[in-house]
Amino acid sequence: MPLLNKQSFEPRSLPNGIVQDTQLYYCKATKELFLNHEEYFTRMMMLNTTVWSCSLTRKSNLTYFEAIKSEQEAETELLNFPESLERPILFIVQKFTNRGRFEELVNDVYHIMKDRYFTNEEVYYTERNRKLLAQIITSYTVEEQQEIKTEPDVKEPVLLPADAYRYTIKILGIDSMTENMFRENVTHDNLFRSKNIGARHKIRLLLKNCCYLPPDGDRYTVRDRFIEKVSQMWWSDVMSGTEPVCPQTPVQQRGRVPNLLIPGLSRTQNRKKKNENDDNNAATPRRRGRPPQTPEQRALKEKRRQFQRRSEAGIEPEIDEFIISQSGALTLTVSQLSASSAKKKVRKSSASLKNGKKKAKIQEQQEDLDFYFNEARRLGVDISGLEQDERLLSPKIVANFKRKVREEKEAEKELMKEERKRKIKEKAAYNKKREDLICNDLKPMPKFPALELPSWMTNEEFEDYLFILQFFSSFKDILPLKEIRGSESVLLSDVILAIRCGDPQSSPFADLMRVLLSIRTDITDEEDGDEADINNREEMYLINTQNCDPINLAHGDSIKEISDLHQKIRKIYGKSVRHLPVDWMTLTEVLRLIFATSGYYTGISTHRHRLYARGNFRGYEDPAYELRMRRPDIISKLRTQTVFDLEPSERMEIVKAIIYQLLTYSKLRGYLEKSQNDLNELKKEQKKLKTWDAGQEGEANAARLVLELDTLDFEKKESPVVKIVKSHIKAHNEGRRYDKNDLDTILLDSVPYSSLTLDEIIAARELQKAEVKIKLDIMSSKTFAMHCKVSDIRLGSDRAYRRYIVMENISAILVENPTTTELCINCDEPSRIDDENNLREDEKNEVFLCSGQLATCLVHGLQRNNRYRWCYIESRDQFQQLLNSLNPRGNREIELLEYLNEYRLNLLNVIEKTEQLKREKCWEENLMTNIPDPADTYNIDWDTEMRDLLLDFEEKLDQGLMGSIEKVFKINRSSWRESLRDNGDVVKLLEDNNEVFDQNIIDIQSVSEVSTVKKLAIAFFMIVRSINLKFIKPPYISPTKDERGNLKPSELFNRWQSSLLQCESHSALSLFITTFEGAIKWDKSRLQGKCKSCRRKAFANELVLCTECDSCYHLKCAKVDLKLDQVISDYMCIACKAHKRKLENEARRKNVSKTEDSLLASMSIDEHDSATEVIDEASTSSLSVTKTASGRSVKKIHYLEVHEGLNLKARKSNEVLMSSTPFERAHRNEPVKVLDHDTNRDSIQEDEHDSDGENTRKRKLPSKRSLTAKNNDSPRVIIPKEKEKMSAIEQLLKEAMRQECSWPFLQPVDVKEVPDYYDVIKRPMDLRTMMNKIKQRVYNKPAEVGSDFRLLLSNCETYNETESEIYQLSKQLDSFVTTRLDNIIGSR
């Protein structure tokens, strides 16, 4: 039945005196009868007001009908509540909970049930994305059962964590008994309850109807009718493991004491009194505190005071009798009798009355002093003569007694206050952080197993391997691991094999070094560049003012030598050291050159970058430079041996030096700083979320407290957010579908707790906690992953200074014991342990204590060297044991404990991987425990490898018809190959010496006794000299030709050949081979060609190569006779023959034309001088005379050709020559000298080419144009209109040069920065050259400026990729200039 104003409602009984014809009003809802309509109307109004509440759920502010519906729903839910879950819950309430507040009781039960499951309970089991109904058969724990100790401030029940339980379940719904019905070792992650059963509001409903708070009790217990269900149960019937320990909170009484707790007042009297008050004052609120006195009670009290005063004064009133009325008031009756009789009656009655009053007063006084008597006994105050029932104590005695008790209580309070202060100080002193070893409550720590390192590996080497492995793991995003190795992961075994193994074909050392040197090339291109010219004026000023490396007192000379060496190497190989090709054969020489040139001076271009971005980095601080100075023996070995011949420790030194060198560059340092900043930001967000969650907890508690204290019910206007939250919470509690994303957004934003009911606040807070926990776990996982990305995670150290390191790349948590050199700490104070049980050691535990003496101390003394250097955490149990053993008062262990708790889930995943590797027997394989020492394997013969390489090289050249040793050196090719294959000595086949730079570099008499490497270098030199120069690329070929018009080698190529014969190691020779192999035009080889006639491929012996155009033809297509070998070697295709004949005819016509011009010039000189000299017959006969149609004979005149685009110097010389008169000729018959444009072009290019054979700035002259003789005699004339256009174009170019997009096009391209630019671009152009040509009036027309600008854009498009920055800048410059330039040129 619903409650009316939270009191039980009893319908009215049937009215009396009802006859058959009486008109009644029937209320169907309450089944009541009323005699009149007013009573009926009053009842209906009451039923529709919100003064009712549900008796089962205690929901208030309901109408009668809503309360009835709520009770029906609650009864249905109670009937559907499973028996297998009801009995454990009631058992927990009866046996373990100690709560005096109902909500705390619900929280305790829910906390115990959360993620834990009871025996015989039906749950859902998830397996392979399927949800199956199952039943819990048994459960057990994976952790040792220990006695659970609670602290006073614990707010939730204490029991084993949910992940410590394992369950055996039975799958329901299977017809026959099979093995698939049962699942063992099931964790709580795969089990869950239905939301309709395990929700908090369901538990609250069950406990409201099954539990109550006894009137004289301080905790909720199970009602009597449910006791039988749980009386015979034990904890083992419910769940395994240790019994839960629940906190205790007594009943907090507010207001007056309930009538039920008043002694002497029965429950029936209390109910009657309560009903009467409810009927009389249904609408008035109940008063709090002591009830007011009635008039009768006040009158009685006043009369007592009067009699007490009269008795003290000795006055006796004339009283016949005392009558105490039924209400308790005292009335006096005085009679009209005689004085004597009246006196007798008064004496008798007054005497008896006085005795009764006196005893009553004594008893009342003793009852009032009963509290003080108890306090006095407790405080030790003497109460002799005070606690009695014979006499009435005087007020003075009572006052003195009370004062003495109060003084003792005050003294007790002061003592208690001092005691509390003392305890607070002791607690603060106890909890104060201190040295770990002086804590008196240290517990034994778990004994970790030793890391199974191979016998041939030392602890220091393992540390270096971890360092190299961590470097590759930290920078794998920017290292080219995928491009070189095909995988982004580097294993520990790869690093160990790379350092230990000396076999280049089995060791990944070359691949890992290629990765390091590739990123080094990219970084040095950006941050270093090439060496600077120390003799430059600006460089000298910078060196002297900034005290740069070249003038350093200790290292200045070395820096200069290194810079000169770097320049020399660049002039030998045509590229810097950082760009040299790297493979397993050239690696040694490249490393030697890197160490030999590290620390070179880069000059003013990188000074500011080194100063600010690299921390004022100096060349002599380069780790590679320091290694060369510290270990010159390693560098000397690299000169004659290979890196694979070194000791593993020496290879380790090389790798570490390269890594340290990379870490000095700003790119890697910036990458680390960015990752560290991201990690710090993530930690700040995590801390901010925790602070916000604590604030939400306070808001929720405040809202709950307001609802508990505020008894006024009034309607509040709900906002849309509140309505949404309430609807989502209701749907969640009822198990219906709702928008979870919408609810999660509100939960993580701000929940309006002040507008929710008590149940809604609790449900919303639980959902918010769950969502915050999920987000914190995600952020913790991100933090862990980012921390692993930055470096290995140093969790901290324990009391024995052991470091705990997370190495995710080997899936282990390592424990490193410090060495003697690392830990230099003396003993200070010996450790003192209060509990002797903590001093016991066994197989699983070990104790670390300080003895106070360095000789015997296990932590600070030398005895710590007896422990293993490297250990690891092998199981989850050991991890939990470590957490329990750490002392939260120690300086080191508190930090370690915080990190372990923060990354708990991630660390458990790492340990789980460790356990999996050990189960799969891959743990020792990854550590290479049982593998023999890879350093013992070496099966490479460098001489054989090099000879095979040279033989293959020569074979490709010969088969491709690109060169022939027989023709160049006049020796038999078969004999040469046989000598090279046998012993590599081909010097004996040479007949003449060989020269480079007019120096004899191969002296046959002196090379008979040389090293094997020198003999192989001579063999390769012969191969190089045998190649036709047309198959070699620049910069090995000079852009100019010799006097015969043939190709000639560049000076760089000559220096390269000289250096080739100075090789001292196989790796150096291999580097020469590799660099030269890339300079050969292999696409012109016969082996790579197709028949130009039929477009089909064929074998080399079926093709013939044209000596002019290098085109291939089938022998059949070329119609070549196989018997004529000379035709095959000197074959020329039909097209080349036709072109050759054409050139010969043109040359013949040019000779005839030159002869005619000479004759004409001689004739003009003779006529002007009026001389009569005879002209040579041959010249006269060559003069061509033609006849017109009318028969008149005329002379054929040939005009001189002068290119209009010559530079100013050439143009002036032409003008002088062409404007000279015949009178200025020195000799009469001297022919006119005409400037040969082709010869001038070759001379210009040859002058502008540097001594290294590397192309610098060069300009190909524009096309030729014909000018008449009289134009050559007249000066340049520019009309005013054209002059205005040229001025406008000049102004446009100035504006263009000021644009940001014009910086790549301002100056000619520098050959040092772009060595191959002039190999691709034959006609370069830039804005500065165009501006100079305008100022020097080289342009005849404005259209020529447009042609040069289009040439500039075309060159940029040809050389640069479409996605490059310079190409995009050219498009911006095009859009700025082209339209305006076309408008200027096209204007009239």
Sum up the structure in keywords.
4-stranded antiparallel sheet, 50 helices, 1388 residues
Structural commentary:
GO terms for molecular function: DNA binding; zinc ion binding. It is found in: Nucleus. Keywords: Bromodomain, Coiled coil, Metal-binding, Nucleus, Transcription, Transcription regulation, Zinc, Zinc-finger. This is DDT domain-containing protein. Its main location: nucleus. This protein is α+β, with helices and mostly antiparallel strands and 1388 residues long. It is 49% helix and 8% strand. It is built from 50 helices and 30 strands. A five-stranded antiparallel beta sheet has the order 10-9-8-7-11, with no helix packed on it. It has a four-stranded antiparallel beta sheet with strand order 18-19-20-22. A three-stranded antiparallel beta sheet has the order 2-1-5, with no helix packed on it. Strand 3 and strand 4 form a beta hairpin. Helix 46 runs antiparallel to helix 48 and helix 49 runs antiparallel to helix 50. About 13% of the residues have low confidence.
